[in-house]
Specification:
Chain lengths: 150, 138
C-alpha cells in the first residue's frame, strides 16, 4: 500500500464525514477495524464508558450521535502525512452547533471548533484497519457552555 | 537515534537538557490543551520544566512511533504523582495517567515543530477538579 493511496483513502474518509455519510465512512473500514477516541470518557456512577472498540459498533454509534447533536458538523483537514506501511496522520478541525444533548452537555445552540489529531492504519486491502483520535474535550465543553468536568 | 528518539529518551530519563538537545532554536510549539502557541526553545523547555516539577516521578512510555517522511508522531503515556499545582489545579498528590499524541516536524536532524494533543478534561478529572471554570476548587 503506497503512502499516496493510504492518504487518498483517509482524505475520502473525511470527505464522507463532511457529507455526514456514516455508512460511507464505515465502508472505507475493514469489518474488524479498531476504533479508539482517546479523550472519550463518560464517568457514570458505577462505570466508565470509553470510546474504544470497533468502528462498526462504537465508532458508528459515536459518529451518528455526534452528527445528530450537531447537524451542521463539519471537518476541515489541515495536514495529512502517510508512509508506505499504511500509517496516516491527519490534523483536522471538527466543529458544529449543538442542537441535541451530547453526553452530559445540554444544547444551548452554541458552536464548537476543535483541533483533532487522527492516526489511521490502512491495510493491504486498502481499507482502514485502525482509527485513533486525540483532542481536548475540556475545550469542547467550554465552548458549549458546559463547565462540569463530569 | 533520531532527533525525536533522542527527545523522547531524554524526557523519559527526566533529563530536560538531553531532551532539548535535538530541538532547533526557532522551534514552533503548539500545545492545544493549554492554548500555547509559541516559538523558540524557551517555550518548549518551560512546558517540560513545568511537567517535571509537577510530576517528579514522571514516567514516559512510548506506545507507538510513526514516521511519515519528515513528520514523526509519537503516541505516549505519561504517568506520575502530582507534587505541585498544575494547570491551575491545586496539589492533592493525585496519581495521573494521561495518553497523549506529539506530532514532530523534523528538518536536518533537528525538531523544528511540535504539536501536542491531549485532553485537559482527562487531566482535571484525575486531579480531582470538578469544574472547568473553577479549576482551583476540588
Amino acid at each position: 500500500m503506497s503512502a499516496a493511496t493510504s492518504e487518498m483513502v483517509v482524505r475520502e474518509f473525511f470527505d464522507r464525514y463532511r457529507r455526514h455519510d456514516v455508512d460511507g465512512m464505515t465502508d472505507l473500514c475493514s469489518l474488524t477495524a479498531e476504533f479508539s477516541y482517546v479523550p472519550f470518557e463518560i464517568w457514570a456512577k458505577q462505570r466508565v464508558l470509553r470510546g474504544d472498540g470497533k468502528v462498526r459498533t462504537v465508532g458508528k454509534t459515536i459518529w451518528h450521535g455526534l452528527i445528530a447533536s450537531f447537524p451542521d458538523l463539519t471537518t476541515t483537514v489541515h495536514t495529512v502525512v502517510a508512509n508506505d506501511d499504511g500509517d496516516v496522520v491527519a490534523e483536522v478541525d471538527i466543529g458544529g452547533t449543538q442542537q441535541l444533548p451530547w453526553a452530559f452537555v445540554t444544547p444551548a445552540r452554541r458552536r464548537y471548533d476543535e483541533p483533532h489529531l487522527f492516526i489511521f492504519r490502512v491495510g493491504a486491502d486498502g481499507l482502514i484497519a485502525q482509527i485513533t483520535a486525540y483532542w481536548d474535550n475540556a475545550n469542547v465543553n467550554r465552548q458549549l457552555g458546559h463547565n462540569e468536568v463530569d | 537515534m533520531s532527533a525525536v528518539g533522542r527527545f523522547l529518551d531524554g524526557l523519559a530519563r527526566r533529563d530536560i537538557h538531553a531532551a532539548m538537545e535535538p530541538v532547533a532554536d526557532d522551534v514552533s510549539l503548539t500545545v492545544y490543551p493549554f492554548a500555547v502557541r509559541d516559538e523558540g526553545t524557551g517555550a518548549l523547555r518551560a512546558v517540560l520544566d513545568d511537567l517535571l516539577t509537577t510530576f517528579p516521578d514522571l514516567r514516559v512510555t512510548t506506545k507507538r512511533l510513526i514516521v511519515t517522511g519528515d513528520v514523526v508522531t509519537a503516541e505516549i503515556k505519561l504517568d506520575g504523582t502530582q507534587a505541585a499545582d498544575y494547570a491551575g489545579a491545586v496539589n492533592q498528590a493525585k496519581h495521573v495517567d494521561l495518553d497523549q499524541a506529539w506530532r514532530f516536524a523534523v528538518g536536518g536532524d533537528q525538531i523544528t515543530e511540535v504539536h501536542v494533543y491531549w485532553c485537559r478534561q482527562q487531566l482535571l478529572r484525575r486531579l480531582g477538579v470538578k469544574r472547568f471554570d473553577q479549576v482551583a476548587m476540588v
